[in-house]
Specification:
Blueprint: H1 4-9, E1 13-16, E2 28-29, E3 35-36, H2 41-52, E4 56-60, H3 66-75, E5 79-81, H4 87-98, E6 105-109, H5 115-118, E7 123-126, H6 132-136, E8 140-141, H7 150-161, H8 165-173
Parallel strand pairs: 1-4, 1-6, 4-5, 6-7, 7-8
Antiparallel strand pairs: 2-3
Helix pairs in contact: 2-7
Subunit structure: Homotetramer.
EC number: 3.1.3.45
Enzyme class: hydrolase
Length: about 170
């Protein structure tokens, strides 16, 4: 059995769910029907740091909210799949498009809809407030909750496993 560090070291693509992972899972709906979500800036900077080392980013989400598409563009996320009901299909398309193997991917999710992808990737990650059945199928459960730094925690885990964390942090002190 490989360690979490060994699994994270292999990661070339980080795939994320949105609601409950990049957000706290709450959805605010205005009177006009617009969805509002809050994203954590620490997660955003962690994703930018991870990208700077060559790791690609993807979102596969069941909802199709314009605000999420805007956030994905703002972060320069390479691959964005919204309104997806079968995440397996999106994963297969993503692997075909990138030429990567599933073992080269990490996925972070929070609910049973994420299990078809989590069960196929090299590093499956859940947030602590995911149902216990989902947490049981994860290689790693973050200490931080969704929307509260869980993605940043995963980014730093991957950066450390790949030997890039100390170099990146030194750059902030130069």
């Amino acid at each position: 059995m490989q360690t979490i560090t060994e699994l994270a070291k292999r990661t070339r693509l980080l795939i994320m769910d949105v609601d409950g992972v990049l957000t706290d899972g709450r959805i605010f709906i205005t009177a006009s029907g617009e969805e509002l979500k809050a994203f954590n800036t620490l997660d955003g900077h962690g994703l930018r740091m991870l990208q700077s080392t060559g790791v690609q980013l993807a979102i596969i989400t069941g909802r199709d909210a314009p605000g999420v598409a805007h956030r994905a563009r703002g972060l320069g996320i390479d691959h964005y799949y919204a309104g997806v009901h079968d995440k397996r299909t999106a994963l297969a398309e993503l692997l075909h498009k990138t030429g990567l193997a599933a073992e080269d991917c990490a996925y972070i999710g929070d609910d049973v809809i994420d299990l078809p992808v989590m069960s196929r990737v090299g590093l499956a990650v859940a947030v602590p407030d995911a149902p216990s059945f989902v947490r049981q199928h994860a290689h790693f459960v973050t200490g931080c909750s969704g929307g509260q730094g869980a993605v940043r925690e995963l980014c730093e885990l991957i950066l450390q496993a790949q030997g890039n964390y100390d170099r990146l942090m030194a750059g902030y002190l130069a």
